[in-house]
Design goal:
alpha/beta, abc type-2 transporter like fold, 3 domains, six-stranded mixed beta sheet, two-stranded antiparallel sheet, 10 strands, 63% helix, 8% strand, elongated
Length: 446
């Protein structure tokens, strides 16, 4: 029993290092913060939506002494749902009072993403017992999983508006054979839906359709990048621990080869393998996701709405992935330098995992365009974020953050390689941090 206790005590002493304990605490804080962020996004998704209405005066109808108003109907929906300190005009916005030559400009000036547009002959067609329509207009922004809820809500509101007007019209008629008109006085559907993407209007498509089409990519790429970073990083750090344990690293360092060459060669070779692994994982996961969601994906063609990628775009994406792997590996080389053996090397992967998980969750739930300035700064600083965001940037021809990310990752990797070379030239790599002369001098002074 004493031997078992001693072994357990020894293993706990080796595993419960300050670094591993700190990593666990960081993970606790991280998941708490992510939970708060996701909860905030869900609160925004379930909050009372803001809608705009354009040409509201055309939606005023008087039939047989009964007055019906499209904007009045919308406002009635909010009577019991308005938070304290707010008014109906904060949620149902008359776009005719906003500046702009067309409805898209008026929506932007009003700060609304969803609006209905009443046609000029709406009331006249209703009075002639002819079916009419109401257009739905959306300003699309890629804002994560919950960013398209308002489009679904607006479609439901238009449907309920149709039922409401139908009920009043049928009630005013005692003998009628034009049942189609009375059951559906308002025609709605894809033929009268417009979504503006990067300043260009596209018909027969909603933000939900686009979100469904992009859902695989939005979830797939961040997940693959995270898995790839964690996998390749673990291999490199574990390899360094094994080399120290087997004394092969000492042999390598005695060879007449520049330390810069050794470090760069290790990183480039591992980066190529990591890129191959990543592409293989991406192919397998895309096939899996495609089979899993084939009945949920819409018929939207990204190329038809200007969101397709060119061959050059894919080249930028691969370069971004390669540089992110290089950053991860160069960081692993720095961390691995402090590993005493294979077992201690396993605990070094935790910081890398945290850095890969943070951007994955943020991008999946809010995205770059839906995040605040602080979150954007955090995403930019973490080098693994850039290939996760590159797809959105490239689809919207937003090349500035792509090029900025490539330059930043190259600088990050170069800096980490320089630090690693310095470590390879010191005695830390062989003796460990605790036996380093400089560290011992600092400790002795204290």
């Amino acid at each position: 029993m004493n031997h078992l206790v001693n072994i357990i005590r020894k293993e706990l002493k080796e595993l419960l290092t300050p670094g591993s304990v700190a990593s666990v605490l960081v993970m606790m804080v991280l998941f708490s913060a992510l939970g708060s962020m996701i909860g905030g996004e869900m609160d925004k998704a379930t909050a009372v939506p803001v809608f705009g209405i354009d040409n509201a005066e055309a939606g005023e109808i008087d039939i047989d002494g009964y007055h019906w108003s499209a904007i009045g109907y919308l406002r009635n929906l909010y009577v019991d749902n308005i938070p304290e300190g707010k008014s109906i005009d904060d949620y149902v916005i008359d776009l005719n009072t906003k500046p702009g030559s067309d409805v898209y400009e008026r929506m932007q000036s009003a700060g609304v993403e969803s609006a209905i547009v009443i046609p000029e002959d709406f009331a006249d067609r209703i009075s002639r017992e002819e079916q009419t329509y109401i257009d739905q207009v959306y300003l699309y922004q890629p804002t994560g999983m919950f960013g398209t809820v308002s489009s679904s809500v607006l479609s439901m509101v238009v449907s309920n508006m149709n039922s409401n007007l139908s009920a009043h019209l049928v009630a005013s008629v005692t003998d009628s054979t034009v049942y189609k008109f009375y059951l559906n006085p308002i025609l709605y559907g894809d033929d009268h839906v417009v979504t503006v993407i990067d300043g260009k209007a596209y018909g027969n498509i909603t933000p939900s359709d686009i979100s469904n089409e992009l859902s695989g990519q939005t979830m797939l790429i961040p997940l693959i990048i995270m898995i790839m970073i964690m996998m390749v990083g673990s291999i490199v750090i574990s390899s360094m621990g094994t080399e120290k344990e087997n004394k092969t690293l000492e042999t390598l360092l005695t060879l007449p080869i520049k330390r810069t060459t050794i470090v760069t060669g290790k990183i480039l070779a591992a980066a190529v393998i990591g890129l191959i692994y990543g592409l293989a994982y991406m192919l397998g996961m895309s096939m899996y996701m495609g089979a899993l969601t084939k009945n949920l994906i819409s018929d939207v063609s990204l190329e038809d709405i200007g969101l397709g990628l060119s061959g050059l775009d894919y080249l930028f994406l691969l370069l971004s992935m390669f540089l992110s792997i290089a950053c991860a590996l160069s960081l692993c080389m720095v961390l691995g330098a402090f590993a005493k053996n294979y077992k201690s090397a396993q605990t070094m992967t935790m910081p890398l995992s945290i850095m890969a998980m943070i951007p994955m969750f943020i991008i999946m739930f809010s995205g770059w365009y839906g995040s605040g300035i602080v979150v954007k700064a955090l995403l930019f600083v973490i080098p693994f974020s850039h290939p996760m965001m590159a797809m959105d940037f490239l689809m919207f021809d937003d090349y500035t953050p792509v090029f900025a990310g490539l330059i930043y990752m190259a600088a990050f990797a170069a800096t980490a390689i320089m630090v690693t070379v310095r470590l390879y030239r010191s005695d830390i790599l062989i003796t460990g941090l605790g036996q380093n002369k400089t560290v011992q001098t600092i400790l002795n002074r204290k």
